[in-house]
Amino acid sequence: MYSPDLTPPWKKSRPVPEVAAEPGLVVEEPGSGFCGAVIRCEAGTVTLEDRFGKHRVFPLQPRGFLLEGEVVTLVRPSAGPARPARTASGSVAVPGARARVARAGRIYVEGRHDAELVEKVWGDDLRIEGVVVEYLEGVDDLPAIVEEFAPGPDARLGVLVDHLVPGSKESRVAEAVTSEYALVVGHPYIDVWEAVKPSSLGIPSWPRVPRGQDWKTGVCRALGWPENTGAAWQHILSRVRSYKDLEPALLGRVEELIDFVTAPEER
Asked: Taking Cα atoms as reference points, which of 150, 109, 113 lies closest to residue 131?
């Protein structure tokens, strides 16, 4: 009698690399979809911590994890000197570091999705630096926010704007509020969704959406996804594991803002 092969695709036999489960390595357990950083590796098991601080223990099975979308076998690290762990942004992790008391300075981003993406990739760095990220819900509110915030030497304000291209409404607003202590930068994408590399999502490219259509709904329609933009965003965000999944045009701007708001206070 024919018996179908029910083995999941990620566990079918073919050579896969072995990767040492060093602390800080971010992997996904595909059976559960749990994605997190390695915090402990013991005989036969590995403990992961996700971005919300939740821990899960998984067996060290062959072909048991995904690393940057590729199937790998996690193995216990060797007893030799461990390489420095890295945060999702690529910075050297500081084991046991406590979050710094929040600075007066802030980084504002244009919406909730932007804030969630920045938190996922730069969250560890921002907590060590004491930088709080808030969102605007639209660039039209920016002049009033900057006026109320009153940026100064000890309270710098950095702002990340979507679709900041010459001649746009966003560029005019940015020029109006930029000052010595307020920096507005932006990326060229219509929405921060586009700042995620298509290869990380398994799509050839981001689709072009006709003018006049809601862009996010049009993307879902073009890609054959359910027209639920909230669920679509959660899928997109789940595929972002580190800075390697983001376009350089976004990476550079966020790093620029972090450097700006954490610059030493003038005396």
From this structure: 109
pTM of the complete model beyond 0.70: no
Banded model confidence at residue 247, pLDDT cuts 50, 70, 90 = very high
CA dihedral for 32, 33, 38, 44, sign (positive or negative): positive
Distance of alpha carbon 18 from its chain centroid, rounded? Answer: 25
225 Cβ contact partners less than 8 Å away, ≥ 6 residues apart: 219, 232, 235
The confidence score (pLDDT) of residue 99 equals: 46
Q: Measured between alpha carbons, how far is 232 from 226 in angstroms, rounded to an integer?
A: 8
Rg, the chain, Cα only: 21
Query: Which residues touch 23 (CB under 8 Å, ≥6 apart)?
Result: 37, 38, 39, 40, 41, 82, 85, 93, 95
Q: Is the pLDDT of residue 12 over 60?
A: no
